[in-house]
Structures are given as structure tokens and as C-alpha cells.
Amino acid sequence: MTPPATTTDDIGLRFMLLGLLALAASLAFGALGAVKFLDPDFLEALPFHKVRPLHVSLAVSWIFLAAIGGIYHHLHKGGGPALFSPRAAAWHFRLFAVTGIAILGAYLAGRFGGREYWEFPPVLSLPIFASWILFGWNYFRSVLRRRGAWPVYYWMWGTGIVFFLITFSEAHLWLIPFFRENMVREVTVQWKAYGALVGSWNMLVYGTAILVMEKISGDETLAASKLAFSLFFLGLFNLMFGWAHHAYPVPAAPWIRHFAYVVSMTELLVLGKIIWDWRGTVATWRRFRHRDACRFLFAADLWVFLNLLLAIVISIPAANLFTHGTHVTVAHAMGTTIGINTMILLASVFYVIETRASEAAARRYRTAVRAGFWLTNGALLAFFLALIGAGLVRGTFAGSFAEMTAAVAPWLVVFTVAGVGLMAGLWMILLPATRTIWGLVAPRRRAIAPSAAE
After folding, report:
1. Which residues are CB-contacts of 308 (< 8 A; sequence separation ≥ 6)?
2. 353 vs 86, 127, 237, CA distance in Å?
3. Per-residue pLDDT tens over the stretch 97-131
4. Which of 136, 206, 213, 421 is 20 to 30 A off residue 342, Cα-Cα?
5. Is the pLDDT of residue 83 over 80?
6. What is the three-state SS of the chain?
7. Which has the closest alpha carbon to 430: 114, 27, 120, 103?
8. If 0-12 CB within 10 Å is exposed, 13-18 middle and 19+ buried, where does residue 364 land?
9. Where do the structural domains in the chain lie, given as residue ranges?
10. pLDDT at residue 373 in the model
């Protein structure tokens, strides 16, 4: 498949396309990792220590690629200023893609050397950092040309870009002996950096959600409302301080952790209220026109409240004593990554498809997407509950490690089956989405090919 030529019109689509492929691959490695929980000898050519970073890095790449693609596309097609430098955006894409291939190659070859999320050799972080500098420069040169007050998603996107650069730099402080040679210091900085990193991508994702809701409803006051800016300021505060409740392995005052929990829970509550209130304002014909985007946003809202409920429970100190570091923590992370972030980003992708693809193309994929949507959310719920069950068994078990492993095994069987179902459901969504996005990009390649040849 020859990659299409890059233009201002399709750069966002190319990021989305690469993101969809990253998510599909991440799901495959995730399902393989779940199987290896039950049978470590299965497919020995890919041991778990390789499968896990492949799954995690591809999942993180999906979030960033889809969010960046949405920013490039919506900034250009959503009534905002034209992109300042299409050439810089093209280089951003090339750097991201080439570095991603190099990272996957390093994992498959067994070459590591980094830390959580960034387990690849640290030298590969340099082009990632350079690509984000390019992205930030291009973004701010573009939006600063807009006259009048910025909608909240401009602030969110800009904040997410700036804080990614800050937290990405912090995540590499372990390269300095002052941090690396003191375990408490290194663990503290690493947890702080990764907690804030999640806050930076939340800014990109939540800003995208508000833009999509604004465009579907046609109500431009949504992005200027007090509630939307409350979400922005809460998200900013949570980005800077909400990581504190992750730092349990290191010494810290209990009030810091509890305060961080309150902030992060409030952020989820405000996001859930914005989506819930928005649903009541969308005219029926608009909801019908954007049925898939609305469906994914509604699912994100339900997962917001499920994750909020779980987060409140595990924030109770007595409960956290038994659940922290167990499968319950993984359930919270998966519910957030798939149930909230992925559903919002899929809403963004399908908003683009519904506004730019033909009705004939929409009819071809609609049945598969609807079936995939229900399978995905049903499997994700089973996946979520199985992880909670496994975590509670592990956190409260009083016997030997072997006995605990045997007690957890039935929950892991459910977890594995649900993971395969989750992969199948999302693939049913991703395949038509990928084909449709490619169909939007490929005609432009054919249209500009003759002039390129000249």
C-alpha cells in the first residue's frame, strides 16, 4: 500500500489512519498477552516481556495519533484558521511514523533500555521530542491568527502539547545519575511524570470531545460555557497535581493523595455532565446524521460514570490498601483508556467519516460498526469486571503465592475470553473505519500524482 501524498486537507486523515492501524495491532498484542497469562509457553517466539511493551506503546500511539489527527483535521475543516505550515505537518507525520517503526523493531529484537511507556532505547526519544516541537510550533502559529476569544478546545489542545513536552522530558530524568542512583527519587519522578503524561493526553482527547459535540449540535456556546472552562481548569490542576495518588510506593503525606483523588474525580464528573447535558440539546436530525459519533460519545459517558464509581471506591484508604497494584488498578486504567478515551476518539473519527464520506459508503459499514459497538462494550464490561474480581482475590488472599495464583485463574480465563471478544468487536469497527478513511485520502493522491510526476 503506497502512502498517499500529503496535503493540508489530508494530513489529519493520515494521522487518524495510522492511529487506527496502531489500535488494531495493540489489540492483537493485548489479546496475545492475555493468553500468555494462562499459558506462558504459547508462541514462544514472542515472550511476554516483548508482548507487553508492544501492546502498551501501540495503545499510547493510538491515543496520540488519533488526537493529533483530529486536531489537524478539525483545525482546518472546522471553521478555524488554516494550518500555518502543511510542510511542517508532513514532517511531523514522517518523524512519528519512522520512529514508530524503529521502536517496534527494537522491541521485536529485544532491545529495551527505557522506562514504563517508553521502554525503547532512549535515543529514539529524540525524534519524538523533535516531532512535538514541530507540532507545537505549527499549532500555535496557526491558532494565534484567530481573532477573538478562543474556544475551550484551543486552550486544551495547546495545554496538552506544552505539558507533553514537559512530562516527556521529566520521564527521561532517570538518565541523569542524580535521579537514577537514588531509588526513591527516581520512582517519585517517574510516577509523577507518567501521571502528568496521562493528564496531557486527556487535554487533547477532552478538547476533541468538546469540538465534536459543538459541531454535531451546531451550538458554538458549548465551547465557551463556564462548565467547559471548569473542565479545562480542573484538568489543568489535575495534570499538575492529580498524579499524587499514584505515588504510593514512596513516602508522602496522606492528605496529598486524598486531595489528588478529589481533583481527578471532579474532572471525570464534570466531563460526564457535559456529555450528558449535551445529548439533550442535539436535534433529532443531527443525531441521526451523526449516529455513530453520537453512539460512541454516549458510550464514553457511561464509562465515565463506571470509572468514577470504581475510582471513588478505590480511593477509600482501607480499600486502597487491598486493591492498589492489583488487577483492580488495571481495570481502572483499561476502563479509562478504552471506555473513555478510545470511545471519544472513535467519535472523532466517525464524525469525520459522517461529514466527508458518501452516504453509500456509510451504508456499507453501518451494520458492522453497530454490531462491533455492542460487542465491544459488552466484552469491555466483562473484561472490566473480571479484572476487578481478580484484583479483589489477589488483594485479600491469605495463602501462598501458588494458592493465590490458582484462585485468580478462573477470573483470568474470563478476562482472556473477554479480551478476545473486545479485540473482535473493535476490529469490526476499525476495519470499515480504516477502509473509509483510506478512501478519503487515496483520491487526493491520484489527483495530485500527475503534477508530482512533472
Report:
1. 265, 268, 269, 272
2. 22, 31, 34
3. 999 999 999 999 888 888 777 889 999 999 999 99
4. 136
5. yes
6. CCCCCCCCCCHHHHHHHHHHHHHHHHHHHHHHHHHHHHCCCCCCCCCHHHHHHHHHHHHHHHHHHHHHHHHHHHHHHCCCCCCCCHHHHHHHHHHHHHHHHHHHHHHHCCCCCCECCECCCHHHHHHHHHHHHHHHHHHHHHHCCCCCCCCHHHHHHHHHHHHHHHHHHHCCHHHCHHHHCCHHHHHHHHHHHHHHHHHHHHHHHHHHHHHHHHHHHCCCCHHHCHHHHHHHHHHHHHHHHHHHHHCCCCCCCHHHHHHHHHHHHHHHHHHHHHHHHHHCCCCHHHHHHCHHHHHHHHHHHHHHHHHHHHHHHHCCHHHHHHHCCCHHHHHHHHHHHHHHHHHHHHHHHHHHHHHHCCHHHHHHHHHHHHHHHHHHHHHHHHHHHHHHHHHHHHHHCCCCHHHHHHHHHHHHHHHHHHHHHHHHHHHHHHHHHHHHHHHHHHHHHHHHHHHHHC
7. 27
8. middle
9. 283-443
10. 95
* Strand partners for 115: 118
Closest to 215 (Cα-Cα) out of 78, 41, 358, 26: 78
The values of phi and psi at residue 344, to 5°, are -65, -45
